[in-house]
């Protein structure tokens, strides 16, 4: 029960902060995914309908496949409009932080969040949240911030008034953070929430098709190329590695979001227990993504070597240097994690 995790006092504190704040800014993590965008836009829709002066700020551009979400066009993108984003954060009465556990996840907007005199609320499901806020609502056992937010709104007595648009946003985050209910998805509560969202007339099949079944030709070709030409299997360490350089990304007209889901693909090969994806986002800057099965802790590799972290089975980090050096580092540290493979329980 969520009431065991979130005290009545916290629920009241969130309600009171919303009630007494004139200007509210909602912010989510950089490279926003379905859960970050979904939770932000669901809350945005609810607060706007309550007549609040509310804004959503994202550190960088949301991916194309999430632009169908109601309200996505009104998001203030910090990398495009830095002055506007800074001013909104600094002049807010309340900042609601959604789907991240550490201030550095909002990238260059971090000093404007910490430096703002606004009251702050964090609602999140990542492990070990930093406490930089006035009200911290952290539930790592929830599979998405959207599911957590929905339940919190229920405790606040606000789920009845939720519109179909907000329900679409909530469903999107629940769906994308569980791989369309294929992992972290055995909690019966999830399906009770989905039933309530369906009663608000969402079309879940259409949301799936818009969020996940819509590709550019470049994206499809890039994924095909990555799997056919670039996937390396290291069976002795039960690992798969895909690395894409800037030149390769450019050749396929890469835009943010095009490689979403690619890192999961090698996990479908029997005998592969973890998968590493390296993407050279800028010269000498490599974004690292890892996924695993069972008990293999990819968040440990990411925190040990790539200045990152995340969940046991889904983690990320970064590397400053060439894509070849990043690959070299991955290959050199693999043997250190064999002990986890030996103990791995995969059902
Ligand atoms: P993705 O591979 O989809 O970018 O990220 C998967 C998960 O890893 C995210 O939900 C987040 O928890 C974590 N993560 C990704 N990148 C970073 C990072 O740079 N730092 C930290 N601390 N966590 C990250
Ligand atoms: Mn999330």
The H-and-E topology, N to C, reads as: HHEHEEHEHEEHHHHHEEHEEHEEHH
Number of helices: 14
Shape descriptor: globular
Q: Return the domain count.
A: 2
Write a structural description.
The chain has 347 residues and is of the alpha/beta class. It folds into 2 domains: 8-212, Alpha-Beta Complex (inorganic pyrophosphatase (n-terminal core)); 217-340, Diaminopimelate Epimerase, Chain A, domain 1, CATH 3.10.310.30. It has 14 helices and 12 strands. The strands form 2 sheets. It has a 6-stranded parallel sheet with strand order 3-2-1-4-5-6, with helices on both faces. A 6-stranded mixed sheet has the order 7-8-9-10-12-11. The longest helix is centred in the N-terminal third of the chain and has 16 residues, at 34-49. It starts with a helix and ends in a 5-residue tail after the last helix. The mean pLDDT is 95. Bound molecules: guanosine-5'-monophosphate and manganese (II) ion. The site of manganese (II) ion (MN) has 6 residues, from loops. Guanosine-5'-monophosphate binds next to strand 11 and strand 12.
């Amino acid at each position: 029960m969520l009431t065991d995790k979130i005290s009545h006092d916290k629920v009241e504190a969130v309600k009171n902060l919303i009630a007494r704040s004139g200007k509210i800014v909602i912010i989510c993590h950089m490279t926003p995914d379905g859960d970050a965008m979904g939770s932000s836009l669901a809350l945005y829709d609810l607060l706007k309908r309550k007549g609040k002066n509310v804004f959503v700020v994202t550190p960088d551009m949301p991916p194309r496949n999430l632009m169908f979400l109601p309200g996505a066009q009104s998001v203030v993108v910090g990398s495009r409009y830095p002055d506007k984003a800074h001013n909104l954060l600094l002049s807010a009465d309340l900042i609601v932080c959604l789907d991240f556990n550490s201030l550095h996840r909002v990238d260059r907007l971090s000093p404007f969040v910490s430096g703002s005199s606004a009251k702050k609320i964090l609602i999140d499901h990542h492990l070990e949240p930093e406490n930089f806020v006035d009200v911290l609502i952290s539930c790592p056992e929830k599979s998405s911030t959207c599911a957590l937010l929905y339940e919190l709104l229920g405790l606040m007595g606000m789920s009845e008034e939720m519109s179909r648009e907000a329900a679409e946003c909530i469903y999107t985050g629940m769906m994308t953070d569980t791989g369309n209910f294929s992992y972290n998805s055995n909690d019966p509560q999830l399906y009770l929430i989905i039933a309530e969202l369906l009663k608000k007339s969402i079309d879940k099949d259409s949301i799936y098709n818009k969020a996940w079944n819509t590709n550019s030709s470049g994206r499809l070709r890039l994924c095909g190329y990555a799997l056919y030409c670039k996937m390396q299997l290291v069976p002795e360490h039960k690992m798969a590695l895909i690395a894409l350089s800037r030149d390769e990304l450019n050749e396929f007209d890469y835009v943010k979001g095009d490689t979403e889901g690619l890192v999961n693909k090698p996990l479908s090969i029997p005998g592969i227990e973890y998968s590493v994806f390296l993407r050279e986002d800028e010269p000498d800057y490599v974004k690292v993504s890892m996924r695993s099965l069972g008990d293999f802790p990819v968040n440990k590799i990411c925190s040990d070597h790539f200045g990152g972290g995340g969940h046991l089975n889904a983690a990320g980090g970064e590397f400053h240097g060439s894509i070849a050096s990043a690959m070299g580092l991955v290959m050199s540290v693999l043997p250190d994690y064999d002990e986890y493979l030996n103990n791995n329980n995969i059902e």
